Amino acid sequence: GAVVSQHPSWVICKSGTSVKIECRSLDFQATTMFWYRQFPKQSLMLMATSNEGSKATYEQGVEKDKFLINHASLTLSTLTVTSAHPEDSSFYICSARGGGPPFYGYTFGSGTRLTVV
Amino acid sequence: SQQGEEDPQALSIQEGENATMNCSYKTSINNLQWYRQNSGRGLVHLILIRSNEREKHSGRLRVTLDTSKKSSSLLITASRAADTASYFCATDGLTGGGNKLTFGTGTQLKVEL
Question: pLDDT tens for residues A2-25?
């Protein structure tokens, strides 16, 4: 079945630094990838949708200059949290959707726990 | 913004009992999906029900969908301690930017021995 690999699974960084999270579709081409953020005991909030080769579409309230998304190939999307602050500490999950069947086609990565100290 | 509201927010039952979770949503959907998430982990896809379906079964899972009421329910029968997790509904709806999944608020299920 479809597999999405997300790395790193956890990261601790100092306030003010940038962190890059990778999301790879291993056995299918992901025309669209999604990035979610999840705070403890809360639901997943969609941050942005990225299509290969084009700019990401950000949800309302998400700072595009802070959360840089790059989807340069059909198998890789990256999320860079720039100038991270403690309030950016969260669980980030990516999801990939292929260009064709299966019809629901959403495959999730295992998530990245970011802690900013 | 959140698409779905789920209730209850938390549910505690004994092993062997059934667990029912409800999800309401606001806009038109192509399908509705249910996911499970163990604490601090990724999502596991459980079941999908299309907008033209009313009920679907998968093992101990039973999902219903009422598009007129914009609601769905997930029933887990004969629950086990291993079913302890958070459960989310997610609606797949067409938006200006294409299809995307929007998650409900989730139900935290605890199954006690």
Answer: 789 999 999 999 999 999 999 999
Angle at A33 between CA A47 and CA A102, to 5 degrees: 130
How many A/B residue pairs have CB atoms within 8 Å?
54
State the pLDDT confidence band at B1, using cuts at 50, 70 and 90: very low
| Inter-chain touch B103–A111, beta carbons under 8 Å | no
Contact A43 B100 (CB under 8 A): no
- Average pLDDT of chain A to the nearest whole number: 90
d(CA B23, CA B107): 9
Whether residue A86 has a cis bond before it, omega within 30° of 0:
no
B42/A57 CB distance under 8 A:
no
Please state, as a whole number, how many other Cβ atoms lie within 10 Å of the Cβ of residue A22. Answer: 17
Distances (CA, A) of B20 to B55, B75, B103: 14, 4, 18
A42 Cβ under 8 Å from any chain B Cβ: yes
